[in-house]
Amino acid sequence: MEDSCDTVADKGDTSRHIIEGDDVGAQKLSWRSVVAAVFILTVEMCERLTYYSVTANQMLFSTSILQLSAPLAVKIHQVFAGTSLILPLFGGYIADCMSGRYNAILGSGFIYVVGLVLIPASAMDYRPLFCTDEDGSQFDLDLTTRRVYYYIALVCIAVGTGGIKATVGPFGAQQVEEYGKGAVRSFFNWFYWFINVGSTIAFTAVAYVQQDISFTWGYVIPLISMVTSLFFLVVTRGFYRHIPPGESSVKLALGVVHEAVRRRGDGQPFFQSPRKRYGGSYDDETVSGVIAFGKVLLLLLPLAGFGACYFQAQSITYLQSLRMDVTLGNFAIPVAAIGIFNTIAVLILIPFVDRVLYPCMERIGRPFTLLKRIGVGMIIAMIGVVVSGVVEIFRKREIATSGGMIQTLGGQDFRSSHYSVFLQIPQIVIGGMSEVFTFVPAFEFGFTQVPSSMQGMMQGAVLALSGLGNYIGTGVLAAVSAATHNDPWLSDDLNTCHAEYLLFLMGGILIIVTVIFTVASLLYRSTPTQDDDVKEGTAH
Asked: Which of 73, 108, 115, 178 is deepest in the core (most CB within 10 A)?
């Protein structure tokens, strides 16, 4: 999911240049602009490689090295992922209003590095390096210290990725925007490609090192990657086009809301009082834009519930993978690598629906509008969650019949089914399909419904809703754990608990979320603004 969201969210902050800018794309890019764009793309690739290297085997590291329970490992993973999606809102604000984009990337990168130093420090075996007592006993960090290092590291990494995610795409686009919309579009095409290069390396090569060689070295790789990218960012500073910070749309929107609340007793409707014609401080376009923003945000609130179920299912799928046969011949594939099929599904499906499915629906007079796509995506996600639950039932039944087998992954022994981990491909592919039909049109819908001045804020808000879903999922898991204490639905031993019940519960919640969204979409009416030319048909 995050690959798709990364790209569309970052597009939103600069897409107004694609719409409003003069098309001077016939001009050739200067070598200086090309070099600047390439280095920024490299920074993005290294950051995504780094982030996914941290998350790829996060739960295995938590349960094996830090000896945390599986439910706690899931909660930590979801809170971290959610925070990483919410913080770009603040990172974008700081870059736009205070520091400027280059400084925001650089500063966030340094905070990132602090976390990347602490993670291998929490994984490292110190005993071969130190002898502290006369009898030759060796020094090693206790579990509490390792966990503290790890928690601090996750905070630093979340802050770092939040600052970079919000800024690096718009900063790259500003290097080429003077050459027209074609150059900007080309930059974002390559931007998406570099994101997927970074994530693919993380989920395959780095995940293999972590699982089969050493978590310490597996976490040193992303540290080297980030330090290298920051080094090149510093030495190439003179190549970049810098724009000083200015007024943020977030600050503007908060100002409108504050004035509406402050003057609510003046006898005017709530959002009329901030307008200049009613004695307020803001023009009609700004106020109408804030109203449009609020209406879209309310409509898309069910995405938080969707994200809660989607990310919870992803976490359980990973725990399920650990307890299935990961061998391919004589080679043990990295557990995290199975997630590559999600990326493949997204990469194949996006051009298919864009070039084939949606145009065909238009031609037969049944346009597949953005809101319809979101609803279909929620239904697809529900199917994927149910399939995951069915796989879990058959996986446990096979272990009960055959006794299973013992396989060691990341230094931890798991009693696993003889069923191949590749049986998870359908549920993972279905998950990728749900991304294409839910998250991608959600970003596009938000973009088309607000004025250009608020498109970046809208994209960040939709991304934050996805992050909120992780928090909601954590709350649901905590409630379920408390209610099923005597017969747990999720525990350290996935073979004896009822994870399938939890997955089916997520499917039921998705049905409710889909109904709520459908009703809300039928009631939704767009708000006219002076930017109505950017809106497209989003009929229900």
From this structure: 108
